[in-house]
Amino acid sequence: MSFDPGMRASMNGRTLRLLQEADIARLQMIDVEAHGQAWSYRVFLDEVEQNDRVHLVAQTDVGVVGHASAWIDASSCRVTNVAVAAQQHGQGHATAMMLRLIDKVLDQPHVANLQLEVRPANRRAQRMYSRFGFVPVGVERNFYDRSDGQGSTDAVVMAIADVSSDTWRERLAELQVAHDHTESDRDTGAAA
Ligand SMILES: CC(C)(COP(=O)(O)OP(=O)(O)OC[C@H]1O[C@@H](n2cnc3c(N)ncnc32)[C@H](O)[C@@H]1OP(=O)(O)O)[C@@H](O)C(=O)NCCC(=O)NCCS
Fold first, then answer.
1. Cα 97 to middle of ligand 1, angstroms
2. What is d(CA 160, CA 77) in angstroms, rounded to the nearest whole number?
3. Mind listing the domains of the chain with CATH numbers?
4. Phi first, then psi: what are they for 163, rounded to 5°?
5. How far is the CA of 129 from the centre of ligand 1 (A)?
6. From ligand 1's centre to the CA of 178, what distance in Å?
7. Is the pTM of this model over 0.85?
8. Atom 27 of ligand 1 has which residue's CA nearest to it?
């Protein structure tokens, strides 16, 4: 599978592009801040090299501000990481990355469903995923490493069961429109 590595600038100056090796050190810092730990350099390199991965990086004029990644197998896609630098929260970066990530994943016609894991206490992330139509489908026991000291080791599993559903496709389209609108308002100074 191959993905267009082309850059696309949004109206607010954010660029979404594929992960490059040169991004790894910065993303490890963002992940330590966001999750308390980060993937090793080797694991990140696999993200660059393996063709069953989609790994997007968001960049603004201040540099790399976040990333979002997914692994694709026969019929399902697992969102494996979403993180934005703390000082950049609330600017739509994660929403923009998720929209683009899902767009890329939907280019693969064999993908039928999407899945991810999230900490039970991480309401903000769960709220974002819910906006995308992810619903809780179970609990993965001891999913998180106990050594990270961030509470429960269980994960809530959230999923979109059928990406071909018209209802879900409409929801996604509405989310894209709402996101574009928010960004446009922000650019023109209409947003608070
Ligand atoms: C969860 C996380 C990825 C969200 O990143 P973010 O870039 O702040 O997310 P967004 O800006 O897209 O959305 C966050 C909020 O900003 C609002 N927002 C502000 N500007 C926006 C815009 N232009 N477009 C869309 N939403 C915007 C959203 O409505 C949302 O509101 P809410 O939190 O009240 O629901 C981020 O908090 C993070 O990195 N957390 C630590 C790591 C983590 O929890 N990762 C996910 C689980 S693995």
1. 10
2. 10
3. 8-186 (3.40.630.30)
4. -75, -5
5. 10
6. 14
7. yes
8. 92
